[in-house]
Amino acid sequence: MARMEKIRIGMVGGGEGAFIGAVHRHAAALDGQYELVCGAFSRDAGNNQRTGDSLSLDAARVYASWETLLEKELKLPEQERMEVLVIVTPNHLHVPISIAAMEAGFHVFCEKPAALNLAEAKSLKSHLDNNNVLYGLAHTYIGYPMVWQARQMVLNGQLGNVRKVYVEYPQGWLTASEETSNKQASWRTDPSQSGGSGCMGDIGTHAFGLLEFILSQKVTHLCADLNTVVEGRRLDDDGAALIRTEKGASGVLIASQVCAGEENALKIRVYGDKGGLEWQQMEPNSVIYRPLGEPYRVYRAGGGQPGLYDEAAARCRTPGGHPEGYLEAMANLYTAFAKAVRAKQTGTAEGVPGLTSGIRGMAFIDAMLSSSKSETKWQAIPDTE
Amino acid sequence: MARMEKIRIGMVGGGEGAFIGAVHRHAAALDGQYELVCGAFSRDAGNNQRTGDSLSLDAARVYASWETLLEKELKLPEQERMEVLVIVTPNHLHVPISIAAMEAGFHVFCEKPAALNLAEAKSLKSHLDNNNVLYGLAHTYIGYPMVWQARQMVLNGQLGNVRKVYVEYPQGWLTASEETSNKQASWRTDPSQSGGSGCMGDIGTHAFGLLEFILSQKVTHLCADLNTVVEGRRLDDDGAALIRTEKGASGVLIASQVCAGEENALKIRVYGDKGGLEWQQMEPNSVIYRPLGEPYRVYRAGGGQPGLYDEAAARCRTPGGHPEGYLEAMANLYTAFAKAVRAKQTGTAEGVPGLTSGIRGMAFIDAMLSSSKSETKWQAIPDTE
Amino acid sequence: MARMEKIRIGMVGGGEGAFIGAVHRHAAALDGQYELVCGAFSRDAGNNQRTGDSLSLDAARVYASWETLLEKELKLPEQERMEVLVIVTPNHLHVPISIAAMEAGFHVFCEKPAALNLAEAKSLKSHLDNNNVLYGLAHTYIGYPMVWQARQMVLNGQLGNVRKVYVEYPQGWLTASEETSNKQASWRTDPSQSGGSGCMGDIGTHAFGLLEFILSQKVTHLCADLNTVVEGRRLDDDGAALIRTEKGASGVLIASQVCAGEENALKIRVYGDKGGLEWQQMEPNSVIYRPLGEPYRVYRAGGGQPGLYDEAAARCRTPGGHPEGYLEAMANLYTAFAKAVRAKQTGTAEGVPGLTSGIRGMAFIDAMLSSSKSETKWQAIPDTE
Amino acid sequence: MARMEKIRIGMVGGGEGAFIGAVHRHAAALDGQYELVCGAFSRDAGNNQRTGDSLSLDAARVYASWETLLEKELKLPEQERMEVLVIVTPNHLHVPISIAAMEAGFHVFCEKPAALNLAEAKSLKSHLDNNNVLYGLAHTYIGYPMVWQARQMVLNGQLGNVRKVYVEYPQGWLTASEETSNKQASWRTDPSQSGGSGCMGDIGTHAFGLLEFILSQKVTHLCADLNTVVEGRRLDDDGAALIRTEKGASGVLIASQVCAGEENALKIRVYGDKGGLEWQQMEPNSVIYRPLGEPYRVYRAGGGQPGLYDEAAARCRTPGGHPEGYLEAMANLYTAFAKAVRAKQTGTAEGVPGLTSGIRGMAFIDAMLSSSKSETKWQAIPDTE
């Protein structure tokens, strides 16, 4: 075995005061697979420089804009040059930067959503196909080991034929209006930066993506009710939908940001004719399994834990009893992405949500917005593959 | 204070092999307010007699039919005669027996549902109004102390303006088809005995009643999806609805009997602009309160427990730390009913769901059935008061 | 089958303001096996009469003292006369009343502790042996279905050889001194009424009895540290002990009444070489089972629940998902006692802690008091059978 | 602000197949403060080289032994040279390597325990004092934000005068004998590599350190019972102790590795005259607070969460609802250590357990071993500061 070189990453966005940029840096660092070599962290020059300094970056590689970053990095020798660009800007920049980066031959790892809407997401496809690069999307919850456990339980028939699915994502941080609440709220509730949906784009897509991932089947129809609960807000901050899947299951999807006191209480339950399962993001190291006619049992994350599928066990760093969390989940995406980079794969990295997931999420949002305005009950979600 | 005489009750239904009859007897006995004096427990003479014997009844007051029971009891001296008739038969007999009992001057305490449908429920009203009797309905969950705590929290503004409500009642006992599952399943899934709805009539009404009780406001519109998941079953065994309330809250109601492995996981969450609350039937002695901007706290049932409203505290028999459960919840209904009997009230007993609740439940079922068949999204629930 | 006559009980103690008397009445009533026919509830005549009236008793059978009660009941015709005397007085009266009642030929069902100390408890033995009566002791926690489940799990080898046991009973109600806290505190912390130990007599015995019951083996040695945490209190309000059992297991027993904020958090964990189990009184309807090398699983109380031993299932009144609690646990003792009364058994009623348990509890308290004063580490508990 | 240079670390131990070395590397990487520049990972040359390669190390700085590592690094220019040595070898090498590293002028960050026994731990002191270096000890649990929250709650009087403390650390991984269980078991149960105690050295010290940290006071006396439960094992695999603290609190400490099915269920409860608290390692993001006479409440980890002390909030990387875990706890120690390195502090890094903690842990083990062999009840723990 030869020495493993670290993969060189750059970052757009994620200056002081941003939340998700730091999360990506922690996650990329955790497994020692990456080295941050450059960034364009903020349009504010001082912020940009301070961020670069705090990250031990060479000042010459802290760029004033993402355009400059791409231009200058391209001119560096290949063995120094950034290989992967991490995009953690507000949503409306995801697509322009992704396209430019891919066209310049860089892999892209993008914070979700992939785009502002379905059309924009689809526009990424040709750029990805034509440039021999990888595209990864930070649907972080897909990085949790026990989400993989749940998926494998379904795939291996532990539930039998799936009939019911309930997925919910209640948050409370937008209970009060933007003036009095978190600064993060401002751009997330601004249509020009965030897209056509607020709550559904921000967290509804997580719930939807988790559901389709664990079920390994598509939602085909939904009947939605979106609300703007807080007066003066310009986008939906709440919603729910009845859903139906391609193989005949039905269920409910809930996402809300006005559930006072709730943190990130993402939870999914799936029931088939042989059993049910339950997973919660805030206690992510357990999956409850309810086999029909037996006492319920609990699978626990961790190396050497009984009953884990390989897909789950491989995503644990520590033996049972050492709780891993959100950063480790995202790190699992980064590490899977690194593996694909090293293997010189293109398109989608195995184990990492890619453009297909991004397009799917946009189709979901479009359908939710359309359904919510309609007086007809059921709305089809277009089949995007 | 004079000696408190026990109230004399009779029972129709509840022979060997029935579940809910025994529950009513336990509940009626618990607080020492009632004496069971007669019954018509089963159309099977042997079952009927054995049940009467096991309950220490005088054989002369174990009657072959409910008609005989009413006729014979009426002929007894007033101070011996049954005062309250408890009805625990299959659903289709609830109304005929209720009417006959009220017309004979007996108070009625009826297992839910009040009737098979809205029209039948409404037909009870004139009989109740004209006979100076009480009518109580065993919406048992309304008997839990912490359900009253939740209601008072809403009424006292601890949540502010209510915006969201989620109520769910997943069960698993009908996951397999009737042939292989519980005997209880047979009549509950038979339209002629159970009414037009299976799951919604059986447990959806509980979820709905709990929701309107805790909110102290009405659901005005719903958008339902009912399913018959298990092949060959004649009634819905599953469903969900988007809902809207009279004061502008929205939410979701879920009821299902095919959620493999679930017991009676009735749960309600309510969120306002000042906080949220959560209560679960299977851990009924806690209410979680999430005041906006403060750590969440937990109210606990029991005498002397901090933060309880009188309405909750008065429904606890023991100090904190002694779990009370389902039988105590129903006993709270029976004891409130006894108080009303002694006070010679008529119509509805304070603290006990009455005919208004019964009619409301039927309006809900009718609206659910109608909505589920419709291609239009929203269905109004008629205002029944 | 002949008609089942109710068993006639009388009660000493349990007037207005008492806690445990009402608990016994609820429990005795729950299953319809008993009829309360007489009582001497309080030395305060007004309280006594009001209590009797509220319980629908014939005024002639509300007696001024327990001596009068025994004397007058004996003169009644056998088919009217009380059969079982329930003793719910302060502790120091348990033995005198028990002896008098047994000598008069009445069965005794006594609130714990059986006596003030070991010698007094042993003095009961000859009276029990000589009078063809039953003696039951309200070690209420032994009435929980899932305590029986745990015991059967041990007996059936699901844990293998038992090595470790931890039992704890933290309460908080004596955190503040008697002047400012619960009225119940006054007699419980008065040595003349309560015996030589406060906390250990009140709740330590529960922990100890539960431990020996679930293990089906005896604790042989202990090393105790008792404390009087609150200044001015005359008895221990806290303590803990290292323990060893006859078959070589070791562990810890904790009981305290100064754990601020705790209710009745009785909990037991047992570990063998094949697995472990855990049960908690405040969520009494579950037993966690941790089989070595498998995901842990949870047995749940209720009719028809998977994995329950007959001994547990027989103590549930309702199907899974209907929580039963403390009153049902005590009712299980009463109902088992009723069965033994009807079967004309003497001595101990199957399924009900009897005098042997009472003596055992006193031996435990004596050993704890002795050990706590000693500078030697280990103290033997005398083998009391 | 100038560019933040990464701190250069080396590692001894932690080759393929080791558990804790990888944990240290994840933790050191997480916040981007360190760069791993050299190592001596294994005495097996192949393992050593493969580990270095997988960590992207320059082959020239993967050394055959820790002695070579120190010798060669010292010869490198100061701006390239390792600054901190991380020691993750078996226990018996902790002291020799620590001394050599400190004498060579390197900071030391050592996996616990600091030494094999009290005398050896004390021998470190002069080397630390004389060399202007820092010494950090990986008592990882001290890195959890909510452990700091608990400590601050005590310090700020939220509990009043502390009276009781229960700390327990049940594990199950040594339930079966070494032949059939985890490979990790072999050296941990070998006295020559592990020291005089097995379970107490391995996890008892964690429980003890956590207790003294949260209480901000010392345990002065204990009464211990240590056991070797599994036949043939050479060190204790289980134990418990009654304890007393310097300010008059009492309690219990439990540590066991034969509790079948338990993972790392470290838990602490503290009670004072104004309230109690509870924290569990396996759900580390909550602290339960039970203020006397109020509903209990739950503090939750995360940026912006209500009620957090600065000491807790500063140790969270993400907003509420994003679970952080064990690696983040250790990363908090690493990051605090980095801050002290940059500030050119010596001795102990603020917020990181140091030699004082290490000596304290050894005093605890010595006292436990001594007490367990004694027939006298109480054993004093020497005051080590």
TrEMBL record, chains A, B, C, D:
The keyword Signal applies. Residues 149-278 form the GFO/IDH/MocA-like oxidoreductase domain. GO terms for molecular function: nucleotide binding. InterPro entries: Gfo/Idh/MocA-like_OxRdtase_N, Gfo/Idh/MocA_oxidoreduct, GFO_IDH_MocA-like_dom, NAD(P)-bd_dom_sf. The keyword Transcription regulation does not apply. Residues 7-138 form the Gfo/Idh/MocA-like oxidoreductase N-terminal domain. It holds the Pfam family GFO_IDH_MocA. Keywords: Signal. This is Gfo/Idh/MocA family oxidoreductase. The lineage of its organism: Bacteria, Pseudomonadati, Pseudomonadota, Gammaproteobacteria, Alteromonadales.
